[in-house]
Amino acid sequence: MTCRLLLCVAGMAMSGTLFAQATAPIPQGWVDGYILGNGIRIHYYRTGGDKPPMVMAHGSSDDGLCWTNLAKELTSQYDIIMVDARGHGLSDPPSANDPADAQVEDLAAVIRELKLVKPVLMGHSMGSASVAWFAAKYPNIPKAVVLEDPGLAARRPGAPGPGAATTPEEREKRRQMILQRNNMTAQQLVDECMKNSPTWGAPECAIWAPSKRRHHPNTALVGMGGRPSNRELFPQITAPTLILKADAQGDLRKENEEVAALLKNGKIVHFEGAGHNVRREAKERVMEALKQFLSGT
After folding, report:
1. Mean pLDDT of residues grouped by 10 in the chain (297 residues)?
2. What's residue 23's pLDDT?
3. What is the DSSP string of 47-92?
């Protein structure tokens, strides 16, 4: 099939900035589609081929295409399904009364409707929380689990927790912030990314930018309270698990390793100098660790 352009980015400088249009590309040969499940329409991208399946769950405000650069490295071995979480990309928005495990059951619906057998599951940030909960809730389904910078350390007393915008005023403020980003041009978003995350590089920023325009403001209405901690979930996960963790030192690193040790068959790798977007900031080292792990599963 010919590439259906959702984003066109010209690698050229104009007035000192990268020129970008408001759409993002599906690479040649990939497809996209929808399933109906868990009460909504869920959109996904798929690399295809008669290969073992791998399901990728992105972080908050990203979308499925934000996995593009990593997925390209794995398409020779895997049929990769990149899911748009509810309220992200082209999936339906959430509602304020969504249960805490809505995204977990969304993943279950995708796996069921696409008839995926023993998929590898990979998640980043918000997506890692969903993947970990899924792997604990349905331990016989994943072949292996990869978690990119999941939350491992206990929240400190007085620190805001997940979904901290709990008052109507706070949620409306966040809603308006998301809408403001929706109305930024692709070029403005690329410029913001290059300024705030220069180590990512222009190709990554060009894929990241359009996801912010598709991020639904109603995600601000849904908190993440009620989700079990990884301390609770990890003992229930039986699939081989790799944790790709941002750099940490001292007590924080020790606590990360203590929580990771609760996995029955797990490994944690801290990446020196990398922040929350580990794969974007240490891609070569992440690929080395990821391929080594996957080759043993």
Report:
1. 36 33 76 97 97 98 97 97 98 95 98 98 98 98 98 68 67 96 96 96 95 96 86 98 98 98 98 98 97 95
2. 55
3. --SSS-EEEEE--TT--GGGGHHHHHTTTTT-EEEEE--TTSTTSP
Domains of the chain: 5-161+226-295 (3.40.50.1820)
User: Left, alpha or beta for 273 (phi > 0: left; psi -120 to 50: alpha)?
Assistant: left
Supply the pTM of this predicted model: 0.90
Q: What backbone torsions phi and psi does residue 294 show, to the nearest 5 degrees?
A: -65, -30
